[in-house]
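Sample entry (412 residues):
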Amino acid sequence: MDSNVRKNFIWNVLGSTLNATTSLFFLIIVTRLNGVNDAGIFTFAFSTACLLEVIGTYYGRAYQVTERDKKFSNSDFLYSRYFSCALMMLAAFIFSFSRSYSIYKIIIILLLAFYKMLEAFSESLYATIQKNNELYKVGISLFLKGLCSLVIFIFTDYITNNIIFSIIGMILIYILLILFYDIKNVRLYNEKKTRFDNKKIMLLFKSGFFTFLFTLLIQYIINAPRYAIDNVLSDNYQTIFGIIVMPATVIILFGQFMIHPFLVRLTNQLNEKKIGDFCALVAKLGVCLFIIGFLANVVAYFIGIPFLELVYGLELKEYLLSLLIIISGATLYGVSFIISNALIAMRKTKVQCVIYIIASLFALVISNILVNSYGVFGATLAYLGTMTLILIMYIIVFIRETKKLKLEVDHE
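Predicted structure, serialized as tokens:
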């Protein structure tokens, strides 16, 4: 492993880990300082903001990084991001005011949506940096944002005991880091800035639509149990489910930072018609994640619940099985995520929409049935069942598409 690859990998792991686990620390802080009810509002608002963020990122960083045909410049991607971020905030307003939530809950949802909108905007800048083979700069940015956000959130909430002020503090820190780190790094490449081209932007939205759609659907699928809980249970149960599901964030994160450093290599393997190497790399990454998930379940069985009780200060003994189920489901989704990015590199996005449409309908039905019958435990069962269905469909599609690609290569 050369020094640049090593540096990219290490910083990507550090940055992605801290950035993805900030929600875990936020929930700990709010539970401890503001109480179980406020924690339930916060975790629901945060997960809703993550769902809305899909509109902001639209086609995602992987699509921009693996763009092989050179149809679009980095400026085109950035222009389109302005529009998608505006649409994200519009959707946040519509969602918040269409529900009978309190003003307090609405404000928290909108502020966290704005925070996530800034993250969505950053992703376009990150893609430009990653395409220049300097992924470590992305990792440093994520690390700084995660660390600074946590520090300002803890400090503000401790002083004011007010979640709203704490989120505003995070937003200000995020804006400063975008201005003085992300944009500064992008400008170092001296890439020619292209003019705004309406036709190109529309084409980009059109070509990235299926990536956006299946990403939106998977975020809905991940959060479907939360919405079922929101419909039938009180906010304190959102806190319990949020605590139990938090370890899943770490497992899914492993899938993300395992695949991101290899996106350029996967793209090159496709360009060079090395289909066997392409499949082997995807398989190795999937097996590695299965092993990580198995080890995570072993650790969770022995110390998971005592650790969570110590951290959150709540009684959680009855949720051991739920915790193991969530970790298993997250492992299956992590492998699906790896396969999904490989299919994105192949530009196989329409078929992924079919997968997630089927899974979304399944999640909608099964989540409401199981949550109504078994509460939080039912929510975890719905999560595992949906993730199992997704992985089975992904494996079938990946085998079929790579076989077709190999046949095309053999006939050339």
